[in-house]
Amino acid sequence: MDWEVVWESVPLIWKGAGATVSMFAWALVIGTVGALALALMRLAAAKPLQWFAIGFGWLFRGIPLLILLFFAFFALPELGILLSPFLAAVVGFSLWTAAYQAEVIRSGIIAVPPGQSEASEALGMTKAHYMRRIILPQGLRIMVPPFTGNAITLLKQTSLATLVTVPEMALLTQRIFSNNFKFVEPIFVLGMIYLAMTSVLLILSVAVERAVSLKV
Amino acid sequence: MNALVQVTGLRKSFGDNEVLKGVDFEVERGEVVAIIGPSGSGKTTMLRCINLLEQPSGGRIVVDGRVVCEEAEDGSMRFAERGDVREIREQVGMVFQRFNLFPHMTALDNITEAPKSVRGMSKEDANARALELLDSVGLSHKADAYPLQLSGGQQQRVAIARALAMEPALMLFDEVTSAVDPELAGEILLVMKRLAEQGMTMLVVTHEMSFAADVADRVLFIDHGVIVEQGQARDVLTAPQSPRTRAFLHAVLDRAPMAEDDGSTGVGEEAGFGGSDLFTEQVAADPEAGPDDG
Lengths: 216, 294
Fold this sequence. Notes:
The structure holds 2 protein chains of 2 kinds.
Chain A: H1 3-14, H2 17-43, H3 47-62, H4 65-75, H5 85-111, H6 114-122, H7 127-157, H8 169-180, H9 184-212
Chain B: E1 5-14, E2 17-27, E3 32-36, H1 43-50, E4 58-63, E5 66-71, E6 77-79, H2 82-91, E7 92-95, H3 107-119, H4 123-136, H5 152-164, E8 170-174, H6 182-197, E9 201-205, H7 209-215, E10 218-223, E11 226-232, H8 233-238, H9 243-255, H10 280-284
Parallel strand pairs in B: 3-9, 3-10, 7-8, 8-9
Antiparallel strand pairs in B: 1-2, 1-4, 4-5, 5-6, 10-11
């Protein structure tokens, strides 16, 4: 491996980090909000809400993420919806995140013992209140590890946005290939940058896990 | 004045399993009623119907003049509106077998959560009231402790304080000593006894026959979803009329013999009872308690 090429590659690839991180962040925020809504729908009494949530999960967990991106970027314009590459990618990633994190949030909620909602109800609290104050904070403990797992997957999968021409890190790496026919070094750098980013997520998740753990 | 709780023809089925088969009883204001019976007899279900943690399949329940549920002519059930249910639940405190404290909150926050959110009490008022209540159950030194840092007996006393913070007209106790070590049951029963003496209306599902004899005004014996016998506590416990009641009491008391028939039971005997100083001994024995605690 030619270390000089490695060092030259770093800034070239790093230029795409902004796109990678912002696709990730937008999709994580939008997707998580959607996931919370889906999880609550899934647990709601109203059947149509349950069906919607089940159908959403079935659809967007059952189709490859790449096809979601292709659909948003190549197919939507034919239906009159023209999205920039970045926006199309965020749409696809958000749908994917919502579908997967909804299951994480739902399982966190149902893992909280039923006595907790019974005690809340017996005290006269509204469901909206005790969900927010009693159930979700406790479910969070259970949610953090699988939630982080999905977030890490999402971060890595933002590299798929290459295929809808978002100038993120993987796309810029390929540009290096075509300029100087060096493969090993840019791929090595790209891998290391992803590894650094996912490591940050892991460290964050451990910190969050500690913060929400029960005081014994 | 009408009875605080009026239950008529209460039925409850889980699928094909009819757990309550038409139960009638009333609880007067200030009365302490103990519900005894074999496990699976429907005691707990009956209690949980009163604040609609279970939805009855038939019959009528009225609490403090408000209809909780009512069976229509055609046999369908009408339940109180959601908002009314919440108002009824404010009036009805409940203490559970497994405490059900909120494990992510301190003892103090457990107690203040509902007064703040449901009754709109200010933080200062809620905290002050919670500290009074913690003091009354002998746990003012544990205000900042988390539930998992407390013993079962302490957790259950916090749970009682939590229910009392809503200033309920009625307290439901669902086998509140069953999940704690036997030597810790006494401290819970003591709190309940004092509550009874302060005039609280209480409906107590219990296996503690001595408590029933000592504190309850009336005892209901329930078996296979029907009330087999009810009456003055001492009558039911010492001179049961029904053979089923007799058999049950025999089975229970063989293992835990009741005290002599004077009704004295060892629960909260004169010495040390009355006033929060009854817990000072225990506090002093607690290595975590500071010198000025209690």
